[in-house]
Protein: Deacetylase PdaC domain-containing protein
Organism: Orenia metallireducens
Amino acid sequence: MKKKFFIGLLTAMLLYSNSLYAISPTMLNSYKLSRRLAEIKIKEEIIKKDNKLIKINLKIPKISGMADKELQNKLNRTFRDKIISFSDNLATMAQRYSQDSQEYDLPIYPYQASTDYQVHYNKDNLLSLTITYYEYTGGAHGNYVKEAFNINLRTGKKFSLADLLGKNNSYQKTINNEIREEIKENQELYFADDVQNLKALSKDSNFYLQDNDLVIYFQIYEIAPYSTGTPEFKIPLKLFEF
């Protein structure tokens, strides 16, 4: 329960303030029919620090090739600011722990903060990537949260499941049915109670695009133990009627 609360708190901190990304509902086909933008590339910035209090290894995605440089810079600032904020918060926690360890004679060990990212989809004027935030603050293992950025590159706005599939009124049912069927094949990997109570997905559910699939994922401890990782479910886009 403590671990679930901690992951929920970390998730809330990382995903706070999405007002920058709200857009009106738009069908996937409308993106595909639009003219292709100039080739967009994703480079990376790497930041490393290592001292007795904390080890930091950050990989920050950096978009290049957009015609609208102001929008490109705005998106890059969003990625960088979120990652640096995550690292700074953990560095502050490490400093406090160091002070407490000296006062109460506690064992001293370095905290760890790292980020990585993966580009899943970069075409049709859409960019879909995930950033994984990993932290270690003691114990048997660290914890991590995966955040998806699904962005309309024409506007710089983030799109939700409802924006992508909203005109298909049965999309939530289709997704839940596909997830349940896949879970049945490996039920031992999941928490029985959480799977049994799997609720309808909200428009803010975790997802990304990959090739011709919609990928729904859950954070660690959300529906499965740590050993399962972040459960991911690939659902062919052809199942949704556009």
The first strand starts at residue 41 and ends at 50. Residues 69-104 form the longest helix (36 residues). The two ends are 41 Å apart (CA to CA).
